[in-house]
Amino acid sequence: MEKIKIMPCLDMKNGRVVKGIHFVEIKDAGDPVESAVLYQKEGADELAMLDIAATLENRKTRLEWVKNVSSVIQIPLTVGGGIASLEDIELVLESGANKVSMNSAAVKNPALIQEAATKFGSSCITVAVDARRNVAMPSGFELVVSGGTKAIGKDAIEWAKQCESLGAGVILPTSMDGDGTQAGYDLEFTKAITDVVKVPVVASGGAGKLEDFYDVVVKAGATILLAASVFHYRIFSVRQVKEFLSEKGIQVIL
Q1: Spatial CA neighbour of 203 closest among 211, 194, 195
Q2: In whole angstroms, what is the distance from residue 136 CA to residue 148 CA?
Q3: Would you call 208 helix, strand, or coil by DSSP?
C-alpha cells in the first residue's frame, strides 16, 4: 500500500489564510508564509493553496501569493482558484507551484483537462470536485461550481470518472455538507469516488479529530488527506496526525 500523505490547505482571501464553514462564514486564520513554513517543519508532505474568491470575483489567482509561499517551502504545492486556461496554468507553475487544481473552468470546458494534461503532464493536474447531496442524481451527489454557490444538475461521481479519462492525475472531492464543520470527512462521497477512479484521491472537508484521518483511509480509500481548520487553529499538528496513523498501522512518511 502506498504511503498516506498529509496536506494542509491554505484557503486564501485578501492575502490572508481564512477558514469558513460550508464555504461561508469566513474567519481569519493567519499569515500564509508563516503557516507554510510551520506545516513543512511539522512534516507536511504537500501543501494546497486555494484562492477561494478568484472565480466568484471573476479574476485570476494572485501570483504573488504563490511566489511568496513557494519560495519558503520544498514540498509540492498545489494551487487552485480562478485557473481557466493553459496560460493560467503556465503562469502558476512558473510562479513556483508544482500542481494546479481546477474546478469551475474544467466543468465549463472539459477539453481543458485533456489539453493541460498533454502539455504539462497528468501529475500536474488536479481536478477539484465539489458536491452536495441530491437524491435526483444517479449517485446521490450533485456537482457544484463557483465556490460552492451554483449546483449544475450534473452527477459528481460520473464527472470524477470523466476527469480521470481526460487525464487528471489527482481528484480532490469536497463535500459541501461537511466543509469546515470538523464533523468528519464525508466517507460516503469520498468512497464513491475512490471506487470509480484509479488516480490518487484527496480527502477534503470536515476533519475534526484524529480518528477522522484514519477512517477516511480505511473506510473510504483516500491516499492524500487534506485539512485546514484543525491545523490552522492548532487543534493538533501535522506530526500528531502522522504519529496517530502510524500507531494504527497506516504507512506514513515520518
Answers
A1: 194
A2: 18
A3: coil
Tell me, what's the pLDDT at 25?
64
CA terminus-to-terminus distance, the chain: 16
- Name, in order, each residue with C-beta under 8 angstroms of 149's C-beta and a sequence gap of 6 or more: 23, 56
pTM of the predicted structure, to 2 decimals? 0.93
Write out pLDDT tens, residues 62-115: 899 999 999 999 999 999 988 999 999 999 999 999 999 999 999 999 999 999
Contacts of 240 (CB under 8 A, 6+ apart): 210
Nearest Cα residue to 100 out of 80, 115, 82, 81: 80
Domains of the chain from N-terminus onward: 5-247 (3.20.20.70)
The partner residues of 126 in beta bridges, in order of sequence, read 101, 170
Residue 166 has pLDDT above 60, yes or no: yes
CB atoms within 10 A of CB 8: 28
Q: What is the pLDDT of residue 1?
A: 67
Angle between helices 32-42 and 63-70 (to 10 degrees): 40
Which sequence positions are flagged as catalytic?
11, 130
Residues 6+ apart with CB under 8 A from 103: 55, 80, 127, 128, 129, 130, 145
